[in-house]
Amino acid sequence: MNSSANLSQKKAIEHFDGPVLIIAGPGSGKTFTLVERVVALIEAGKATAETLLVVTFTEKAAQELTTRISNRLLSAGLSFNVNEMYIGTFHSLCLRVLKDHSEFTRLKRSFNLLDQFDQQYFLYQRLGSGPIN
């Protein structure tokens, strides 16, 4: 574990019995703590790629997490496929679960997601009202 972690970060990093929710302000070290926690879980043999779920709110944060976890695992000399992990936003992870397990839903294999414009147009067509603001 990185020795620059403060006491609260160390508690989150070293907690191996179940999930951890980290809520903190900007610049407080959330990403650092999550990265170190992933590395600690792997080093301790407490996790495999497909059992890890790291969720954040923005795509930028998800990309940053993926890069930093990959780099940190590499620097720790750990062989691990980050692509097998579930790292992303709430929306991207839900989409991945739907795609990975579509056979258990009523969705067609080639289902599409609608962006905000397409959602509004879809509703406009079906409700027959004006644009939604």
Supply the key terms:
elongated; two-stranded parallel sheet; mainly alpha; 133 residues; 2 strands; Rossmann fold
Please write out the topology.
Blueprint (H helix, E strand, L loop, with lengths): L6 H7 L16 H14 L9 E4 L2 H17 L10 E4 H11 L15 H12 L6
Parallel strand pairs: 1-2
Helix pairs in contact: 1-2, 2-3
Description:
The chain is mainly alpha-helical. The protein has one domain: P-loop containing nucleotide triphosphate hydrolases (Rossmann fold, 3-Layer(aba) Sandwich). Helices cover 46% and strands 6% of the residues. The protein has a two-stranded parallel sheet. Helix 1 crosses helix 2 (30-43). The protein is elongated.
Overall pLDDT confidence: 88
Distance from N terminus to C terminus (CA atoms, Å) equals 49 Å
Say how many strands there are: 2
Proportion in helices: 40-55%
Major sheet attributes: 2 strands, parallel
Uncertain residue ranges: none
**CATH topology grouping:** Rossmann fold
- CATH hierarchy class name: Alpha Beta
Within CATH, the superfamily carries the name P-loop containing nucleotide triphosphate hydrolases
Structural class, judged by helices and strands?
Answer: mainly alpha
The run of helices and strands is HHEHEHH
Named CATH architecture: 3-Layer(aba) Sandwich
Strand content: 5-15%
Structure summary:
This protein is mainly α and 133 residues long.
